Amino acid sequence: MPEPQPTLADRLRVLIVEDDASNRDVMRIVLELAGHTVHTAGTGVEALRCAAEEPPDTVLLDLTLPDQNGEEVSAALRREMHPAPRIIITSGMSLRAGDAERLGADAILQKPFDPERLLELLSSGS
User: Fold this and answer.
1) What pTM value is reported for the model?
2) Which of 17, 33, 116, 125 has the most CB atoms around it within 10 Å of its CB?
3) Which residues, other chains included, contact 71 with Cβ-Cβ below 8 Å and sequence gap of 6+?
């Protein structure tokens, strides 16, 4: 049975910030197939520029980027955007849910990520 498509009200503008092209592409495909509008960035600087041009509802933010870490990018997004987007840190490092607040994020998605968990995080807002 096909997955139900989100209603117009459920569709999100998502910014994926990931320096690994394969991870970025997989996340983009999963989200686009679910009906969301997706933009991508490979660095922190590119992410901030993209967010300023096309304000996202949610940012999937890699913790380790080539130019900045995810904590720095998260702080800049929260400082510069009003309202601030929901930020989900993505990382292959072992992190606990309590680390999200310390990193300036709303949630954590472990890599390699489970597509169902990704969609659940987006739809639940938690």
Assistant:
1) 0.89
2) 17
3) 63, 103, 104
